[in-house]
Amino acid sequence: MKGSVRKLTLPSGTVVWRLQVDAGRDEHGKRIRINKSFSKKGEAEDSLTRLLQERAEGSLVKPSPQTFGEFLAEWLREYAQRNVSPKTAERYGQLAQYAIDGLGSVALQELSTLTLERFYSQLRDGKGKSGKPLAPRTVRHVHDTLRGALNTALRWRLLKVNPAIPCRLPRIERQEARIVEDAQLGALIDAARNHAWAYAMLVLDSATGLRRGELCGLRWPDADLDGAALTVARSLEQTKAGLRIKPPKNGKTRRLTLPAAAVDVLREHKQAQQRNRRLFGKDYSTDLDLIFCSPNGDYLKPNTVSPAIAELAARVGLKGIGLHSLRHTHGSQLLAAGVPLPTVSKRLGHSSVAVTAAIYAHAFAADEIAAADAWEARLGDSIRKASKPRLQVVARGKTG
Questions:
Q1: In this predicted structure, what is the pLDDT of residue 396?
Q2: Which of 117, 216, 235, 328 could form a disulfide with 177 if both were Cys (CB 3.0 to 4.6 A apart)?
Q3: Confidence band for 47, pLDDT divided at 50, 70 and 90
Q4: How far apart are the first and last CA of the chain?
């Protein structure tokens, strides 16, 4: 049976026209049928024609009792955990949980743009399960996760349209990352001077702008101290499942030139590390050969590195300063010094020059002033000395 329209008389005496279309079989081989009722025969026949056309084109959405929460759980299991990094999948799970808690019982095929916008407003007002208002940026992250999941629902032919696409979202006030001034940076580095690994890490990060995971994944073979160069080919990621080594964020290995002072600090750090190697003997993780590590040579957990640096910063009155602040400071300093944008982008490991330009737009203000000053120095005097242009007066009236 492809499809049919039948006249039915309900017990109340009301006459309806019942549409039925064969929508194929489910994953268990059970036949699926679409049933709809209409008060007019013409409406039923028009709907039948449309559904048969969708089936012929392969775009027919099969009816499903699946709830939004059930779908999200399936999406996390079948898509996220198989197609993105463990850290990203973990983050998707955290963000999707807001929707599972708030909209989990809503039928997937009944989910609407209005329902989603009301849900986002509830999250901002603190009416979610946590009871705490979410920042506009976090609400956007929730939305981005749901929009991606619902795009998968389109591909799986569970929906005809993605209700998340038209949603209006809260405005996010762009905040520039803090830049650490030279005196502040000196105070922070000095506060870490007697720390096992923080001193060398802060110096290297301020000189290279490496990401936290890249710093934690560095091995001594990556450091060519004689050649004053560093190869960044790995990053250490921490998830609930544990630690894992992965490629850098953009997937590309990069080689950086090191300032002489950073090379000197790394040499001193390597010598100090030898004492731990002798102390732990066979228990030292020589196979890892890490530049920044725990006393026994094992990995430093990224989630413990950040609090340690933040504590040192707070000690010298730099609340809110961390490794990312040093990375941002490094990029800003290079651009302010006139280093070409492509060079800065490559050094920071950005996916494109456009990304660097967007992040460091503030650093180009001095360039704009310099551009105007250069024009003024070259042409300003000659423009002022030139005679004023004569204005041509055109008489009003008919033209021949």
A1: 54
A2: 328
A3: confident
A4: 81
400: pLDDT confidence band, cut at 50, 70 and 90?
Answer: very low
**Chain centre distance of CA 211:** 14
Residues 2 and 21 sit within 8 Å (Cβ to Cβ): yes
Distance CA 10, CA 108 (A): 29
Lowest-confidence region among 44-48, 206-210, 323-327: 44-48
d(CA 73, CA 89): 12
Token pair 């290279």 is found at: 208
Phi, psi of 243 (to 5 degrees): -100, 150
3-state helix, strand, coil in the chain (%, to 5): 50, 15, 35
pTM of the model: 0.70
Cβ–Cβ under 8 Å, residues 347 and 355 = no
10 touches 16 (CB < 8 A): yes
Tokens of 70: 């059930």
Give yes or no for a contact between 99 and 68, defined as CB atoms under 8 angstroms apart: yes
pLDDT per residue as tens digits for the range 240-288: 889 999 999 888 899 999 999 999 999 999 999 999 999 999 999 999 9
- For residues 30, 35, 41, 43, the Cα torsion angle rounded to the nearest 10 degrees is -110
Question: Per the structure block, which two tokens stand in for 389?
Answer: 């242009």
C-beta of residue 230 within 8 angstroms of C-beta of residue 223: yes
Query: Do residues 345 and 356 touch, judged by C-beta distance below 8 A?
Result: yes
CA angle 289, 189, 323 (to 5 degrees): 65
Residue 192's nearest CA partner among 101, 316, 93 is: 316
Angle at CA of residue 293, ends 188 and 272, nearest 5°: 75
The label of the residue with tokens 């007002």 reads 125
192/216 Cα distance (integer angstroms): 17
Alpha-carbon gap, residue 118 to 124, rounded angstroms: 10
Please give the single-letter amino acid code of residue 376.
E
Note the residue count of the chain.
400
Query: Could you read off the pLDDT of 132-148 as tens digits, one per residue?
Result: 899 999 999 999 999 99
Cα angle: 349, vertex 353, 358; to 5 degrees: 100
